[in-house]
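Purpose: get a first structural picture of the assembly so the mutagenesis plan has something to point at.
Setup: three entries, given in the order below. No constraints added.
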Amino acid sequence: MALLKAEKITCILEERAVLNSVSFTLDEGEILGIIGPNGAGKTMLLNVISGFVRVSEGSIHFNRMEITHKPPYRLSRLGIKRTFQIPRPLKEQTVIENVLLAYVMAGRKLGKLNAVVEKVNSILEQVMLIDKRDILAADLTLSEQRRLELARTLAGNPRLLLLDEVGAGLSPAMITYIQDLLEKLNKSGVTIILVDHFLNLSVQLAHRVIALDNGKIIAEGLPQKVLDSPRVREAYLG
Amino acid sequence: MNVAIYVKLVISGLALGSFYAIIALGFSMIFGVTRVFNLAHGELLLIAGYSAYAAWKTWGINFWLTIPIAILVLLAVGIVLYKVLSSIDEPLELNTIVFTFGLALFFQNLMLILFSANYRILSSPQWTKTLQVFGATITSGSLTLLTTSLLAVLILYFIFRHTFWGKILRATIQDREAARLLGINVNNTVILAFLSGMALVGLAGPFFASFHYIYPAGGMEATLIAIIITIVAGVGHVRAIIWAGWGIGIVENLVTGILGAAYREGITAIILIMILLYKPYALSNSQ
Amino acid sequence: MIVVTLTARMQRHLYIKTGIISIAGIFLLFLPQIIPGSNYFLQILTTCFLYATLALSWNLLAYSGKISLGHAAFFGVGAYGSSLVALNFDINPLLSIWCGGCFAAILACTGGFLFSRLKGAYFALTTLALVEIPKMIIENWETLTRGSLGLLNIPPLRIASTIAQSYLPTYFINLGVLMLVFLFLTLIFSSRWGWAINALRQDEKVSFSLGINATFYHVTTMTVSGFIAGVCGAIYAHSVGIIEPSMVFSIHYSALPMVMSLFGGRSTIVGPIVGAFILFSIDQLAFQAILPIGHQILYGLAIMVTILYMPDGIMGLANREHLWHYSRQKK
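Result (structure tokens, whole complex):
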């Protein structure tokens, strides 16, 4: 069943079409990679799906419900959780407070406090931030901030995860670890969209890849096949 | 009310509007180069007004001679103010607006201490001569205000459009980094523009003191008007500023003439709120 | 309301804060018995309580990331609302002050709804202009408000057992309202609501992505803030007895709460109270004597000094642990 269905979304910013009639569907439980050169519109696509940027034309359906012009917080409550390309932790808060905030705001009934803390601790363990839990988020390294972003989305009970360059700037070992983590998540039923400029994760993880260039889809299909297509190579090499 | 009254209201509105245009030009130059929402702008105008008033009162000099004095005083204030403003930390927009709000409060009380809360006016006999236009009586004061303001605006327009410095200034206002890369000495341009803005306010001050009663708390409306005109016209667009100045001058005069003076400040405030709601972020070209 | 003070850090802060303030409150409650003679001192404290409450209301809005330059609007509407209700319907001032707060809350709610998408300096500018609108209406609605002549003979606040004509009822009421507002805000700040506005201040985009409804929280924060400021204005009106538009809508009631919060420390809940006590005492004990007119120059100076030299205010200077924590991590 299609969880997400985008039809001909066009997005015009400052008289330039940053997304031009992009259509695709995403099945529940799928991992979709979005690749493309700089400025191809990858992040814009995430912004549109998560409601941060309004589309000029076209429609988006999530779970058979029209979400085209819904505000971002509504989409977040529906379970569409995103990370940001440049990590944006709340810098005046500690690591655990950041994750707690996401947990509390996801709109669940909060039970016993201890249980909540345990749950959040386990999320921090998953992203290997448990040692840093009482440190101010401003003092984290880039790699740690990326993982904090991930932890925040996990705390929010995601149905569809939109990950923007979650692998960039991470060590190879960490990337492998994150891969395993995402695979596990996916097995538990979370659908994932990966924006992946450096092709860190999508080749191994994605079931399907979409290549964007100049706001248009130029190739779609199995990861290796898309990467081998001459148009994609051309776009990447300029 | 007959036509003559409207003609009078419109003409004195034009005079008032040209005067507002000068104040707004000062504001927009300072804002353009420093990105400071100077909420103490009206208080600076009052300082210029009060120094002209003090010079006139103590030495009994002619109105026109008070203008250079007011300009000098404001240049001195401007140098200090520039130093202080440039040492304010991020987030700049918010910190400077709070800072200049404090500055406005400081100036208001300073003027209260120096000149008391009494209403003062720099009375100049030559303003009261009258002449007839379309059956309406116009005072020579209105005409002087109109011509002086227009002259000042025209000179500035010429400097902006047709001199090298004007081009440099416009480039700096539009994109400071790009201007720096082009080899423009941005710091000097900024200081010069800042001081020119202060000098404009210095020019407006004596007129302000001569056409209105001035009192220490009377600056906020001028600030609001300067902000309105700057937002409507955009930064550094001299021609748009004078149109906007005339617009608001006429609106204010009609409001005062039809509804009464008690509505003026409120209407100004409503206009500002409407503009901010209709054109939010008109001035933040950084985003 | 679910209180979520999950981490040790927050829990400790909460206990320390509530503890200290409650002890201080109880002490202040019995102060008039301890020093019955010192009228002047108690009068200063009375006003301190009022300004501290006003500063707390400003700080609530600042905590959600919005700087208001127009709290005088709510102060003035509260003052007029309560006075008019008390005068026209012969209602006990102890009840009418809450009506005043409600009028201010209505204005704040409308403003919050209209201005919620404006940020930073632009929001500040609208609030600055907002003051003029109720002022204009009150000045011109002469049949109801007597216009710029102002209202006279506003009934004073009274508690049954105290003597009329004394400042003592006002002392206890101001103290009571301050404690009430403080405890309420402490609860709020550690609830889901408080977490939401805290996040909104730090990063609006992240807040969206976490599912926080910015408009809702901004409007409610502004409404509560306006309500508290309105109650302050109402109390002021009843304790002075005479009000006029230019008095209660004066720029000083926009500036005072801001100065006090910034000077005390805007990111803390105790900061505004500390700021109010320090600044108002300096004002009354030193500046008033030297400069009978224009003593409020102090507040202008305080804003400038705070912005230039101590962005986190007095509490920021005092809160060494936090700074130390920061520098240690950076090394």
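Chain A has a mean pLDDT of 85.
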